[in-house]
């Protein structure tokens, strides 16, 4: 998976490390960490909130079509779309909390291994939730082994395919052949057929 927004990731890893070393009440700590993890995939390093929320590298086919139809219909271009974390933030937070001696470098490694987002339709987001994967990954996967199929495991389980995209003005276009899953244990590969 390609890492976007590297400067923001580094800054957030440093902030999370600082928070880990303080003695905040757990509810405040968790809220701050969740907000920072959200910011990894939504806020640009230039300080703009939600600046890159819908400028993600990975989109579903239905989300691409929805965005481009919204442009054509002259409605809110993100209507009906969702910014969805590939690995639930609560699991990433737990992974960070499990670090015995956290450093900015170790926290950045966790962020870079697991903190990715995709743009999906509301219906696709609902599908992930309905199969019980809103806050967890499928059985058989653990965060101890960072692989592409782990990061994509909820999508593999839901049968939702992702495309790597580029933006031409606000329009979204696939730049790679569709990413496919040959089976539930297979790393994604470009479709040659």
Percent range of helical residues? 40-55%
Please provide the count of β strands.
7
Taking the alpha carbons of the first and last residues, their distance comes to 22 Å
User: Can you list the strand order of the major beta sheet?
Assistant: 2-3-1-4-5
Q: Quote the beta fraction.
A: 5-15%
Listing every helix as H and every strand as E from the N terminus to the C terminus, the arrangement reads HHEHEHHEHHHEEEE
Verbal overview:
- The chain is α+β, with helices and mostly antiparallel strands and 193 residues long.
- It has one domain (6-190).
- Helix content is 44%, strand content 15%.
- The chain contains 8 helices and 7 strands, in the order ααβαβααβαααββββ.
- The chain has helices at residues 6-20, 26-42, 61-73, 89-97, 104-114, 122-130, 148-151, 153-158, and strands at residues 58-60, 81-85, 117-121, 162-168, 171-174, 179-180, 189-190.
- Strands 2-3-1-4-5 form a 5-stranded mixed beta sheet.
- A hairpin with an 8-residue loop joins strand 6 (179-180) and strand 7 (189-190).
- Helix 1 runs antiparallel to helix 2 (26-42), helix 1 (6-20) packs across helix 5 and helix 2 crosses helix 4.
- The radius of gyration is 17 Å and the shape is globular.
- The two termini are 22 Å apart.
- Residues 182-193 have low confidence and may be disordered.
